[in-house]
Amino acid sequence: MSDTKKPILSPVLIKRLIAASFFIVLGLYLASVVPSIEIAWVTALLLLTIFLFAFEIVGVDVAAVSIMVILGLTTLLAPMMGLEKGLVDTQYLFNGFSSNAVMSIIAVMIIGAGLDKTGLMGKVAAFILKVGGTSEKRIIPIISSTVGFISSFMQNVGAAALFLPVVSRISARSGLPMSRLLMPMGFCAILGGTVTMVGSSPLILLNDLIITSNTALPDTQQMDTWSLFSVTPIGLALLATGILYFMIAGRFVLPNTKKEDVSSATNTMAYFQGTYGLDYALFEVFVPPESSLVNVMLDDIEHAYKIRVIASQRGANNLRIGPGGLARNVGIEAHSVLGILASPENLNAFVEKFGLELRDDLLTFSESLAATKAGIGEVVIPPGSGLVGKSARDVWMRKTYGIAMVALHRNGETLREGEGIRDLPLHAGDTLVVHTTKNKDFVVVTTEYPHEETRPNKVGAALFFFAIALGLVLFTDLRLSVALLTGAVGMILSGVLKIEEAYLAVSWKTVFLLASLIPLGLAVETTGTAKWIADQTLLVVGDMPIWVIQFAVA
């Protein structure tokens, strides 16, 4: 029996107690130097808020709501606290929920969800894969700049959430660790929010607080609110610096996770290699006009060189993949690009024989052969199937169904391409290893299949109402919240989003956090706490250069 005793207090609790003691001592000191009891209580609430946020005693939204409730209770407890009245008038306590800032944030989240629902983000992923290929040096700046641009016109939280599936798809397709893509994406989403006044919750809130502060200032000290692009020069500088940092220092600061640990496509290949002995991979080759492969039919090369051509493209709009795309009697054209499934040894022999150009990455087929659209799978022939007794050649399997068979497993034995598998009559119970596109004519039988409805037919409506909202912000004096809600409501009425989806799109945790903190800001302003803090700051750094003052305030 072990004599080891558990500590009475956990390390986390000890840290919290030490921090609480520090905040209490600091609060007592400030209470002794502040000019009024109102400022003392507001300062105490500020310290309590910082403590709750820093040590996550409860969720940040719960902490913010609790502070708001405490402010409301000061009206009842004012005599006991030595106050003449509450720190915040209860009629203004819930103004945060109807504030211009909070309503703007809700509208931006709904607009962002509408753009995502149309599948626009999938097209963004396709563009990044086409331009960046699978090179980390190219993909990271493209992802960072794209999410930074998107974040400048919607909440940075929403932009990051929208880009998560994009990064996941790029990671799976390129084999790059997702952890090395997420950090640049997250930071640039934050920095991109500083490019305009609608991209960052603090900037929206600050603009709203300027209006509130002006009510307590004399006419000579009134502050102007910022327009949409007032912060753009600073925001662009911050975003560019962030992108350059990850381009230069990314190799040193980003997590070093091995590709095979993160790539679902690689894991799938590993499964088929372990189960069926298939050391296959996807390759892309270019057929130059002088190659002897020109005008040769697929049937004349696939069996002989043990490869499978699963996609072909010549020109921008001549992609051949899936049902009706390729067949054994299709000839290979000059200047075409072939997507080939083969072992590295067989592929190299094929490329050398016909003088082809092997590309390092999938460029032409980076989207069409992405893991979300195509891949290797297993097909089992059930008893009574119409395929029993027929061979793959008999039914023109690739041409009819878009299925390229690469192996056949029967009675514990696996036959591969080059061993006559397409001529063998199929038996009930045979397992076919195939490469195919994900097609609506096939049924996926599974207990869990993640699916999200998209509405690509609503792209026009989504872009129209997004442009309407942006135009109202840029070219009218309409309040920001009204302008953005116009776009949000338009997306709901036009069917881009259902009302239930709009509710789900809103991060209510963020809404309650910001709305509940606005009364605290009002208390800081009306009790003179803000003026006292500013005066104390100027006493310390008032005679120093402006950049020192800015640093102290920041």
Please, could you describe this protein's structure?
This protein is an alpha+beta fold and 554 residues long. The protein folds into three domains: 83 residues, no CATH class; 211 residues, no CATH class; 174 residues, Regulator of K+ conductance, C-terminal domain (Alpha-Beta Plaits). The chain is built from 21 helices and nine strands. The radius of gyration is 31 Å and the shape is elongated. The protein starts with 10 loop residues before the first helix and ends with a helix. The relative contact order is 0.12.
Sum this structure up briefly.
This protein is of the alpha+beta class and 554 residues long. The protein is built from 21 helices and nine strands.
What is the distance, rounded to the nearest whole angstrom, between the alpha carbons of the first and last residues?
56 Å
Uncertain runs with pLDDT below 50, 5 residues or more? 258-265, 440-451
The helix-strand sequence is: HHHHHHHHHHHHEHEEEHEEHEEEHHHHHH
Structural class, from secondary structure content?
A: alpha+beta
Shape: elongated
